[in-house]
Amino acid sequence: MKSFSEIYEKIKGSDRQRVIAVAAAEDEPVLQAVTKAKELGLCNAVLVGDEEKILSLLSELSLENTFKIIGEKNPAKAARIAANLVREGECDILMKGLVDTKSLLRAVLDKETGLATGNLISHIAAFEVPGYDRMLFVTDAAMNTYPGLKEKVGILTNAVSFVKSLGVETPKVAGICAVEVVNEAMQATVDAAMLSKMNDRGQIKGCIMDGPLALDNALSVEAAEHKGIKSPVAGHADILLMPNIESGNVLYKALTYTTESKSGGVLLGAKAPVVVTSRADSFESKVNSIAMAVLNA
Ligand SMILES: CCCC(=O)SCCNC(=O)CCNC(=O)[C@H](O)C(C)(C)COP(=O)(O)OP(=O)(O)OC[C@H]1O[C@@H](n2cnc3c(N)ncnc32)[C@H](O)[C@@H]1OP(=O)(O)O
């Protein structure tokens, strides 16, 4: 898997059109993205939010309203209504509009109206980075704050299953740390080593996991050789398992702002995929995120 175009190709064979429920849809970039996604034949959408603002924004953007709108001015309530549409099977994907991430995630976790299943829910971001020979997946930049070993197993399981569904038979996972040796003063190195051993012994299946690895060793064969690291993952990582939300989010935003990467992201492990894009994301990235969600719906 090298590019987003392969994801778009896979969607072309899809049996039915998916429907996205947009929470607090009164947001210019999100309206542009769902309109584009519909034009591309990726999906249809139901817009939940401030109806007056939605209609006025569509008109300002010279976009024809071809969507069903459900009026709700309070963004947190709109998030719960949109999540419930997905829970009830009227829609297939939830997408964040002009509502803060925490409110959207709380709507996802709500036991009565949300999308929790008992599985761990985690975020995966995909990057097409110029010069890297494969798609690079980063997890978790958005949902789990300070995951312990058990949560990291859940994050890893979600990521591996998603990346396999894209056609990567045995994803290579790097447990990213500040160094490539176990140091008990850095819990992430201990967690990465335990995950690697769990993978060796078949407790974690479907991938080749190695760690601790520093980012340079994960991405560059030369850097790994220079340090004498012998690892099937070094220089060839498909998935970067980040130690916590700060490192994940910083890497996500660094790739977004300082490289010409194409990107997208989605929440996995819930009843249905959830698109949680950031203000930092481009229009193209929002459409790519919808495509990732459609493929997973
Ligand atoms: C990458 C682009 C987009 C971004 O930049 S996003 C920006 C950064 N992201 C964020 O600010 C969100 C970070 N996460 C959070 O704030 C919190 O973890 C989050 C998701 C709001 C949940 O926190 P709280 O509302 O305090 O909930 P809580 O921890 O008390 O848990 C309530 C119930 O939900 C469950 N839960 C929490 N996280 C879960 C998860 N990942 N998967 C599955 N279930 C989960 C938790 O077990 C609890 O269940 P129960 O009530 O004990 O049965």
UniProtKB/TrEMBL annotation:
Which Pfam families does this UniProt record tie to the protein? PTA_PTB
Which Gene3D superfamilies did the record assign?
Isopropylmalate Dehydrogenase
GO MF term (any one): phosphate butyryltransferase activity
**InterPro entries from the entry?**
P_Ac_Bu_trans (IPR012147), Phos_Acetyltrans/Butyryltrans (IPR050500), Phosphate_butyryltransferase (IPR014079), PTA_PTB (IPR002505)
Q: Give the residue range of the signal peptide.
A: none
Phosphate acetyl/butaryl transferase domain spans which residues? Answer: 6-64, 72-294
UniProt keywords (A-Z) are: Acyltransferase, Transferase
Entry's Gene Ontology BP terms = butyrate metabolic process
PANTHER family named in the record: PHOSPHATE ACETYLTRANSFERASE
The similarity comment for this entry is: Belongs to the phosphate acetyltransferase and butyryltransferase family.
Q: By what name is this protein known? A: Phosphate butyryltransferase
Task: List the lineage, top down.
Answer: Bacteria, Bacillati, Bacillota, Clostridia, Eubacteriales
